[in-house]
C-alpha cells in the first residue's frame, strides 16, 4: 500500500529555510510547510544526484516495505537512510519519476 506524501520540484533558486543533504549536495524545503505538499530541490553544480532527479518533477509516496516496493523496478537511486527514521529510493515508472519513502523508526 502507498500513500501520497509530496510533489518534488527542481528549482534553479536556493530558497530560505532549505535543509541540506550533504552526500547529495542538494538543498530541499519541507513539503509540509506548503498548502499542497510541494518540496523544492536546489542542486549544487557538482551534485552527484542523477540527472533525472535534477531535471524531473517527482511524486513521493509512503510505503510499508521499501525493499519490496523497489523490487523489479527501474531504480534510479537505491534505498538509503536520509536521516534516522526515514529511508527513501527513487524509481522511474515509464517517464514518471517516483520517490518511495518508508518510516523506519
In short:
10% of the residues lie in helices and 50% in strands. It has 105 residues and is mainly beta. The radius of gyration is 13 Å and the shape is globular.
How would you describe this protein?
This protein has 105 residues and is mainly beta. It has one domain (2-103): 2,3-Dihydroxybiphenyl 1,2-Dioxygenase, domain 1 (Roll). Helices cover 10% and strands 50% of the residues. Strands 2-3-4-1-5-8-7-6 form an eight-stranded mixed β-sheet. The longest helix is centred in the middle third of the chain and has 5 residues, at 51-55. The model has no long low-confidence stretch (mean pLDDT 96).
The neighbouring-strand order within the major sheet is: 2-3-4-1-5-8-7-6
Which percent range fits the helix content? Answer: under 10%
Question: What integer is the average pLDDT?
Answer: 96
Oligomer: single chain
Number of helices: 2
Structural class by SSE content: mainly beta
CATH class type: Alpha Beta
Number of domains: 1
Give the uncertain stretches in residue-range form: none
* Radius of gyration, taken over Cα atoms and rounded to an integer in Å: 13 Å
Shape: globular
How far from one another are the termini?
A: 18 Å
**Overall number of strands:** 8
Largest sheet: 8 strands, mixed
- CATH homologous superfamily (4th level) name: 2,3-Dihydroxybiphenyl 1,2-Dioxygenase, domain 1
Q: List the helices and strands in order.
A: EEEEHEHEEE
Q: What is the third-level CATH name, the topology?
A: 2,3-Dihydroxybiphenyl 1,2-Dioxygenase, domain 1
Do you know the CATH architecture? Roll
Query: Which band does the percent of strand residues land in?
Result: over 45%
Amino acid at each position: 500500500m502507498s500513500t501520497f506524501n509530496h510533489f518534488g520540484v527542481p528549482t534553479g533558486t536556493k530558497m530560505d529555510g532549505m535543509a541540506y543533504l550533504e552526500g547529495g549536495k542538494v538543498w530541499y524545503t519541507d513539503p509540509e510547510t506548503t498548502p499542497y505538499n510541494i518540496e523544492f530541490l536546489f542542486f549544487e553544480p557538482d551534485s552527484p544526484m542523477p540527472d533525472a532527479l535534477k531535471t524531473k518533477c517527482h511524486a513521493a509516496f509512503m510505503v510499508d516495505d521499501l525493499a519490496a516496493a523497489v523490487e523489479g523496478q527501474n531504480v534510479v537511486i537505491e534505498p538509503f537512510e536520509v536521516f534516522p527514521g526515514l529511508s527513501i529510493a527513487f524509481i522511474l515508472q515509464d517517464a514518471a519519476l517516483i520517490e518511495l519513502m518508508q518510516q523506519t523508526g
